[in-house]
């Protein structure tokens, strides 16, 4: 059946809750309202108030109580309404969720998922368009997953729920409904810690994730004469650098696209790995096409700020003609 | 129109007075054996505290937080729990942890720079939390899980007066109220958050009354009176087990030692105040009661102290004899399975260490 990302995530939640009585969904407006983006629509009716918890408006509370539930042995899937509101709960992530296994030498663990709509492009208010994935990647003990399309979202979320460690699952809301594709009805998993080679090629490697993947694929399609290998990172932590390194060794050129701010952004990490493991294969400096080290502007300037299809095409051409 | 919506009162409870006499009407049901057990647990906490301090002074463990003076609050509260109940300690709860069965050498190892000490099966206690108040949400989440699973456990969470200023304290109290979580909040009001007196944490007259705003019961008890602490904790635990939700108990006590061994409390409080509180010592008070009731004599005391000192010394020897952990341990517990990145980093470290050697 053809589903968009909201429907695919909703289906994954329904199926995992059915399969495992320990899966609990909690967050602001996730029950009666079905979530502000309708991702949790229908769950309350199916699984009742004990397993679908409309919580008080408190992000630290949502994440902190999820840690307690996970320590008990449940598998909480917490929703933070927008990733820009995660920070009051960030203390719980960096001080506890990510460390409990280590602190207790494996006696306790924290198998939980924190889902949050993330990144820009929907003409939203301030704080609703941020891309701060790097802070989670930089936090030892967390896993970070960002799907780019409905099929991936379902398989990756199921894997995240079944994962024994805390997973930050960032959902690019710009493509929540922008892509509709065939998604199998039955449950399936996609491995965490594995990049996806979306398109094979041998002239240049283009690495991206999240909402930018759609633009990258459009850019590559328009550059008919270029044989580009396109890699969707999918799991930022742990990072499967092997797939990226092997591709760069083959193509000798690389462009990385993300909408997050540039300095210490995820592209910087990929460049460091290429530097460590494939430097001598490079024919040109690796280019990053990213957001800037500013606050993401409101909608009147958002299109100028965010990487565009043309900016990506230009970047690819620049690296190819070096 | 103007009318009174609700009116509130805040209770205070004291049963055992400083001279060892009790208020018979308020005395909870306790056998002589149980009272002796309480006493033993309190004396153990004190002797253990002194041993930790000695180990710190000789450089065998790092910074420690002593609990001397707060033994009645720790033991009286933990005594109200059943084996399967679960506690969430702060960093100053050796008394409660030891009573719950955490081996002494585990605690010594944690303060002695060895994470392995935190692992102790079957104690039904969460790993000690160093950040202030953040673990209260874990306790509430654990309690919510018990409700979801119809598991009749009681969850007890320990924290200090300073913690009541943290946002997570308020979020925890609020969630506990909204979800009717079976949690007993034990606030060890020992009058100081490092140097900051209680009056500078809140304008409220008591910490107990903070529960009222969250829709559940709060009570202040004489925290140096083990019977009052036990009585309030037992009521709270019974209520929680019966599905009547959370309670906040403010144990009004005093931190006799410095905040930690890195602190010098003489900078911010007087000798006179300290001596006044020493007169209220929870252990002396209970011993006076037991002596009055002919439950205890000097011979018993001598025997108990020797026995406990021996066991504490043995535990310290055991803790000190343990080999250094493996280098792999740094990486091994970040995830259930070590990631490729961590494997590479571990190899990196091993190579570096080879070079450095």
What does this structure look like?
The complex is a heterodimer of chains A (322) and B (357). By secondary structure, chain A is of the alpha/beta class. Chain A folds into 2 domains: 2-182, Rossmann fold, CATH 3.40.50.970; 196-320, Rossmann fold (3-Layer(aba) Sandwich). In chain A, 37% of the residues lie in helices and 17% in strands. Chain A is built from 12 helices and 14 strands. In chain A, the strands form 3 sheets. Chain A has a 7-stranded mixed sheet with strand order 3-2-4-5-7-6-12, with helices on both faces. In chain A, strands 9-11-10-13-14 form a 5-stranded mixed sheet, with helices on both faces. In chain A, strands 1-8 form a two-stranded antiparallel sheet. Chain A is globular and about 60 Å long. Chain B is of the alpha/beta class. Chain B folds into 2 domains: 11-325, Thiamin diphosphate (ThDP)-binding fold, Pyr/PP domains (Rossmann fold); 326-357. Chain B has helices at residues 32-57, 71-78, 94-99, 104-111, 134-148, 167-178, 210-213, 226-241, 271-278, 282-292, 298-321, 329-332, 340-356, and strands spanning 11-13, 86-88, 155-160, 183-189, 192-193, 196-197, 217-222, 247-252. In chain B, the strands form 2 sheets. Chain B has a 6-stranded parallel sheet with strand order 1-7-8-4-3-2, sandwiched between helices. Chain B has a two-stranded antiparallel sheet with strand order 5-6. The longest helix of chain B is centred in the first third of the chain and has 26 residues, at 32-57. The N and C termini of chain B lie far apart (82 Å). At the A-B interface, helix 3, helix 4 and helix 5 of A face helix 5, helix 6 and helix 13 of B.
């Amino acid at each position: 059946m053809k589903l968009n990302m909201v429907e695919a995530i909703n289906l994954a939640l329904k199926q995992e809750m059915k399969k495992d009585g320990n899966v609990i969904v909690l967050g602001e407006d996730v029950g009666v309202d079905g979530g502000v983006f309708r991702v949790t629509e229908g769950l309350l009716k199916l699984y009742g108030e004990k397993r679908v918890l409309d919580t008080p408006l408190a992000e630290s509370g949502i994440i902190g109580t999820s840690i307690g539930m996970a320590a008990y042995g449940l598998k909480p899937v917490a929703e933070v309404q927008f990733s820009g509101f995660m920070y009051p709960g960030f203390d719980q992530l960096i001080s506890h969720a990510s460390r409990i296994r280590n602190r207790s030498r494996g006696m306790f663990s924290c198998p939980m998922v924190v889902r949050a709509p993330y990144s820009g492009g929907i003409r939203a208010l301030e704080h609703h368009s941020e891309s701060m994935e790097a802070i989670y990647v930089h936090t030892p003990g967390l896993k970070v997953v960002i799907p780019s399309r409905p099929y991936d979202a379902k398989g990756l979320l199921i894997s995240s729920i079944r994962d024994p460690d805390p997973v930050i699952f960032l959902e690019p809301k710009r493509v929540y409904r922008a892509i509709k594709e065939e998604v199998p009805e039955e449950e399936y998993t996609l491995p965490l810690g594995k990049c996806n080679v979306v398109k094979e090629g041998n002239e240049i490697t283009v690495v991206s994730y999240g909402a930018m993947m759609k633009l990258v694929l459009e850019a590559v399609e328009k550059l008919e004469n270029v044989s580009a290998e396109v890699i969707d990172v999918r799991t930022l932590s742990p990072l499967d650098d092997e797939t990226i390194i092997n591709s760069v060794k083959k193509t000798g050129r690389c462009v990385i696209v993300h909408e997050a701010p540039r300095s210490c952004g995820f592209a910087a990490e990929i460049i460091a790995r290429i530097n460590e493991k494939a430097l001598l294969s490079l024919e040109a400096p690796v280019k990053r096409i990213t957001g800037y080290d500013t606050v993401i502007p409101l909608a009147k300037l958002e299109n100028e700020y965010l990487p565009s299809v043309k900016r990506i095409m230009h970047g690819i051409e620049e690296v190819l003609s070096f | 129109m103007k009318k009174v919506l609700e009116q509130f009162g805040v209770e205070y409870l004291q049963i055992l007075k400083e001279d060892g006499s009790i208020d018979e009407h308020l005395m909870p049901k306790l056998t002589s054996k149980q009272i002796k057990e309480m006493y033993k647990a309190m004396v153990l906490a004190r002797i253990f505290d002194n041993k930790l301090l000695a180990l710190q002074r000789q450089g065998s463990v790092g910074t420690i937080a002593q609990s001397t003076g707060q033994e009645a609050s720790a033991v009286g509260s933990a005594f109200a729990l059943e084996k399967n109940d679960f506690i969430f300690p702060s960093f100053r709860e050796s008394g409660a942890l030891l009573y719950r069965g955490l081996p002494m050498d585990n605690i010594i190892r944690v303060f002695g720079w060895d994470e392995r000490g935190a692992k102790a099966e079957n104690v039904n206690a969460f790993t000690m939390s160093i950040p202030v108040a953040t673990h209260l949400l874990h306790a509430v989440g654990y309690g919510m899980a018990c409700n979801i699973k119809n598991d009749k456990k009681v969850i007890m969470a320990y924290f200090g007066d300073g913690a009541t200023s943290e946002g997570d304290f308020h979020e925890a109290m609020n969630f506990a109220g909204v979800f009717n979580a079976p949690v007993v909040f034990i606030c060890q009001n020992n009058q100081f958050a490092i140097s900051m007196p209680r009056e500078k944490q809140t304008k409220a007259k008591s910490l107990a009354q903070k529960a009222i705003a969250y829709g559940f019961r709060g009570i202040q008890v004489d925290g140096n009176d083990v019977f009052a602490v036990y009585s309030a904790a037992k009521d709270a635990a019974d209520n929680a087990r019966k599905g009547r939700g959370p309670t906040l108990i403010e144990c009004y006590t005093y931190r006799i030692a410095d905040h930690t061994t890195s602190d010098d409390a003489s900078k911010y409080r007087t000798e006179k105040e300290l001596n006044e509180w020493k007169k209220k010592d929870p252990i002396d008070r209970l011993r006076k009661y037991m002596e009055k009731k002919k439950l205890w004599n000097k011979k018993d005391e001598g025997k108990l102290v020797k026995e406990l000192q021996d066991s504490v010394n043995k535990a310290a020897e055991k803790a000190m004899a343990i080999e250094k952990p493996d280098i792999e341990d740094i990486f091994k517990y970040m995830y259930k399975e070590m990631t490729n990145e961590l494997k590479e980093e571990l190899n990196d470290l091993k190579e570096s260490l080879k070079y450095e050697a």
